Amino acid sequence: MSPQSMNQISYSVVTGWYADHKIRTYATRGDEFVRSTECFDLWYRCIDSFTAPESILIVDSASPVMPVLPDDPRISVVRLKQNFGHAVQGLSYLCGWSKALLCGLMYGFTNGSDYTVLIEQGSLFYGRDIIERQIAAFPDADIIAPDGRGTPQPLQTGIMIFRSAIIPEFIAAYCRVASADKSLSPEVKCAIAAEGMNLVFSPLPYGRRRPLDFSAGHFFFRHGTTEEIRAFTRHLGWGEHLVDSVLAREAV
Q1: pTM score, two decimals?
Q2: What pLDDT, in 10s, does the model give residues 160-171?
Q3: Residue 196 backbone phi and psi in degrees, to 5
């Protein structure tokens, strides 16, 4: 795919949102920063610096704490009536993550974007044209997802790229999976729903894998520790004050 063709790709970015600035009562990964409004500010900085979506949808799970949204006309917010919880909690057949995914995907499809890109809350990333480069590398892919190597899952969901044309079929297949999210992880459900589609595993580092090497030209990471996030802000050249803000709130 030529640079000119890359510039002609249209895509929507979708993400879920929930924050309450309280310690979780269930097992979590990463430090509390990744579940904070400050993390949204850093997430948006990555979006604004390294991607070019035509629209950005935030699916809010009735969060008691909302970020201060930037003055960006591309941003829309959909608010669900309640927090459907983490998959491990089993509060609902489909957890909040699944609800946000399905809502966001249909938004991208009905919005007319060529691609719909899930970039999870707490996924921090680096590298100009990080989405366009993956699409250019795999132009025939229906779904592009980081591989699950080194994790307990078949794929990683931190950054997933969907060709919008296959979204109705994917949503129908996802909803046909009989098991609840607590019994069968959303990552496994995504792999099942993609059966029969051209699912390509991207070599994009790192996601949940460690160690991190910030010298890579393009990468993303999930479940960051305070030390990792501070190091990332220094590499990015912005955002270290956000880490200090979270630490100050936790110290009170």
Answers
A1: 0.94
A2: 999 999 999 999
A3: 90, -10
